[in-house]
Design brief:
By secondary structure, the protein is of the alpha/beta class. It has helices at residues 15-28, 40-45, 80-90, 102-113, 138-159, 174-182, 197-209, 249-261, 281-299, 319-323, 331-338, and strands at 2-7, 32-36, 48-51, 95-100, 119-122, 162-167, 187-189, 215-220, 265-269, 305-310, 313-318. It has a 7-stranded mixed sheet, sandwiched between helices. Helix 5 (138-159) crosses helix 6 and helix 7 (197-209) packs across helix 8 (249-261). The protein is elongated and about 70 Å long. Bound molecules: 6-O-phosphono-beta-D-fructofuranose. Residues 10, 101, 124-126, 168-170, 221, 246 line the site of 6-O-phosphono-beta-D-fructofuranose (F6P).
Length: 342
């Protein structure tokens, strides 16, 4: 078979491991590959490179994606689906393997209804895709955030400050909870639990009354105050999938906490640092397993599915299952984190 591969949405450490896994296993099965550039944008423009064992050598440890990525939505472009078909026809493609999150795989799901054979690979540092216990890239993001929290701890302690660390997490607080627990955060705020800023301040005061001289607050970018909306420093600008560009809840919290507690406060927004650089070993292994498993699915003609991790096994789940709703933070995990608040 001739197969098209693409990486869509925000990039993610481990994408290259998936591409390498697909190509290595697929060439052993006698398949040929093209890699579309910049996600669905490359499919629409028929812009692609040949993927072979030679062109995917030496990429396992590299962050980002050798194919490039974008948030292009073919369903927002006139004649988008026809353009997808035309590119596949011109390139003689029998199937597509899109590697992406809810948006990229949402497009893939619609293309299945158009009769296009697709096997999806789940990707997001946010770890919020349903149907899989983990997505690759998440552990790398957690490690980066944890390292940052460790560093912020020492400077917070030196200056008797409250430091608010904003991490990624649009719908779900997985990165905030994991890095917050690992980094010993004193408060963790997540999208699943709208917060009351007075409760946050009370918790910090309680800690300082007990002798602490500094505090660390970890907040997910999608966390919202009980009486407010999502916070965006970017004036509500949205992408082709309708997502608001997030970022800035830590700015508001810094001000509110300093005003209400009197403790000097500083905020840090980690942003895209969490998505950059070399993937940790776990993400290289998971990405490799997903890539190989995607070819197994193609070989079985099992289209309309996404490869996924369940426990320690790689399985296939219908794309519908993955896209039904985001996988929110496990309540028990948050309760464990709460033991260390205040
Ligand atoms: O979707 C993953 C994510 O990391 C979100 O947490 C974040 O809101 C978004 O990507 C930001 O991506 P970009 O700035 O690249 O559009």
């Amino acid at each position: 078979m001739r197969i098209g591969v693409l990486t869509g949405g925000g990039d993610c450490p481990g994408l290259n491991a998936v591409i390498r896994g697909i190509v290595r296993k697929g060439s052993q099965s006698g398949h040929d590959f093209v890699g579309f550039r910049y996600g669905w944008a490359g499919v629409l423009k028929n812009e692609a490179i040949e993927l072979s064992n030679a062109t995917t050598r030496g990429i396992l440890h590299r962050g980002g994606t050798i194919l490039g990525s974008s948030r292009t939505n073919p369903y927002k472009v006139d004649g988008g689906v026809d353009a997808v078909r035309e590119s596949m026809r011109q390139r003689n493609l029998d199937a597509l393997i899109p590697i992406g999150g809810e948006d990229t795989l949402g497009v893939a799901r619609k293309l299945v209804d158009e009769g296009i054979p697709v096997v999806g690979v789940p990707k997001t540092i946010d770890n919020d895709l349903a149907g899989t216990d983990f997505t690759f890239g998440f552990q790398t993001a957690v490690q980066i955030a944890t390292d940052a929290i460790d560093r912020l701890h020492t400077t917070a302690e030196s200056h008797n400050r409250v430091i608010i660390v904003e991490v990624m997490g649009r719908h779900a607080g997985w990165i905030a909870a994991y890095s917050g627990i690992a980094g010993g955060a004193d408060v963790i705020l997540v999208p699943e639990r709208p917060f009351d800023v007075d409760d946050v301040c009370q918790s910090i005061k309680h800690r300082h009354d007990g002798g602490a001289t500094f505090s660390i607050v970890v907040v997910a970018e999608g966390a919202t105050p009980k009486d407010g909306d999502i916070v965006s420093e970017f004036g509500g600008a949205t992408d082709a999938f309708g997502h608001v560009r997030l970022g800035g809840i830590a700015v508001a919290l810094e001000k509110a906490i300093e005003e209400r507690t009197g403790y000097e406060s500083r905020m840090t927004i980690l942003g895209h640092v969490q998505r950059g650089g070399t993937p940790v070993a776990y993400d290289r292994v998971l990405g490799t397993r997903f890539g190989v498993a995607a070819i197994d699915a193609v070989n079985d003609g099992d289209f309309g599915k996404m490869v996924a991790l369940r426990g320690t096994e790689i399985v296939r789940v219908p794309l519908d299952v993955a896209l039904a709703e985001p996988k929110l933070l496990d309540a028990g995990l948050y309760e464990t984190a709460e033991v260390f608040f205040g």
